[in-house]
Description:
The complex is a heterodimer. Chain A has strands spanning about 5, 10-15, 20, 25, 30-40, 45-50, 60, 65-70, 75-80, 90-95, 105, 110-115. Chain A is mainly β. In chain A, β5 and β6 (about 45-50) form a beta hairpin. Chain A is globular. Chain B has no helices and eleven strands. In chain B, the strands form two sheets. In chain B, strands 2, 4, 5, 6, 9, 10 and 11 form a seven-stranded mixed sheet that branches. A four-stranded antiparallel sheet of chain B has the order 1-3-8-7, with no helix packed on it.
Amino acid sequence: AQTVTQSQPEMSVQEAETVTLSCTYDTSESDYYLFWYKQPPSRQMILVIRQEAYKQQNATENRFSVNFQKAAKSFSLKISDSQLGDAAMYFCAYAPNTGTASKLTFGTGTRLQVTL
Amino acid sequence: EAGVTQSPTHLIKTRGQQATLRCSPISGHTSVYWYQQALGLGLQFLLWYDEGEERNRGNFPPRFSGRQFPNYSSELNVNALELEDSALYLCASSLQGASNTGELFFGEGSRLTVL
């Protein structure tokens, strides 16, 4: 069974600084999708960024980028120029290519605090 | 355009009672997913409905059940409530074709407290 591990329950970053959230996963599949979802306090969870395993290039969405290391099964999220609105719970997730969203496996989350 | 809406926002029940949670997907989305988010455990997949049918089920006992209506809205029922059922229940929706990419659109959740 696939597992997703987020070893940092909480992280803190100062406004305008850069922070990296870690995620590792375990799978025997060669093709799959990886995601970072953001859950702000009392608001909907939203997709931040998605990476397809067959693509070597790391995904980037504005201030958010990933460091995808397939061999190491590592998928970290880098947030640059952190803003107060980035404060949220961040979940790393995995989905097999042949599966559907019903086979999404989530990590336990990392709570990010952004300080002035 | 309205997002995924869930009701009620909060629900307090006692052990042994039944809870019913409701979800309306984004217009045009046919797939609805239910997740349980217990403290410190991330999101656990409960159920997936598409076109009115249950398509997949997570590792939860049969007292967790639900249905999807012709307008694609969905209901989650939890019977014989236990203390450990206390959690945030999240509903998400997607287009059927997009579901393989894992992009889900979530509601704000219903917080169930079992006393």
